[in-house]
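Researcher: I'd like a structural prediction for the single chain below. Treat it as a standalone chain; there are no partners to consider.
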Amino acid sequence: MDIGRTVTLNNGVSMPVLGLGVWQMREGQETENAVRWALDAGYRLIDTAKLYGNERSVGKAIRESGIPREEVFVTTKFWPTDLTGVEAAFERSFKKLDLGYIDLYLIHFPNFMPGLGKSIRNRTWSAFEKLYESNRVRSIGISNYSIKQTNEILANCSVRPAINQVQFNPFSYDSELLKFCASESIVVEAYSPLMRGGNLNHPSLSSIARNHHKSTAQIVVRWALQHGTVVIPKSSHRERIIENCEVFDFELSRDEMETIDTLKAGQ
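Model: Treating it as a single chain, here is the predicted structure.
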């Protein structure tokens, strides 16, 4: 099972194509267990954020895993209305994780204070570039950015975003954003790939799942992988964490991919 497959970002850094998201997991045992189970199953990408409130637990579980730090790719995110500024926010996340460096730091949302959005977005990205130059973060990127908002950065940046992390699943599928990011060498990272549990019983997904003797969750994770995205399904249940990574031993056909691509239109 090729769970160790990676993608090379536009700055040359390798990033696993499958990871664990820890949104809505409580600080402490819930997060620590989920991260430990994921690492035991072979995951090497863990995605957290300041907003999630569990960075400390993510760092603790990774440190105690016995896995060399350089083998685990860790993402966290800056919350855009943090008025203490990017550097101070980064320092807090850096200390909570306590892992020596952060692999990927993202601007969590592009929506800043009304009327000041573009100006603050540009200043924030400039601050991200300074962090990148400090060598304490290996890659920088964005999350929930539209094509227009991404172009704002590309027009002025000296370091291009490596990642745009967006909600990406069959019922939240933006093919234009996917094509745009590919054309700009920005990898799309798919959060909520399992639709937070909704629509997993859709008849078309169920039919495709039966064809492959897989669960519908595995089908949608595989669909996102075949679209070239990095995928971070969230689960705090050991058996589902394991199930979600068992997606490298089959492939969806072109017809199956097209069927899933059109589910949003047909609902």
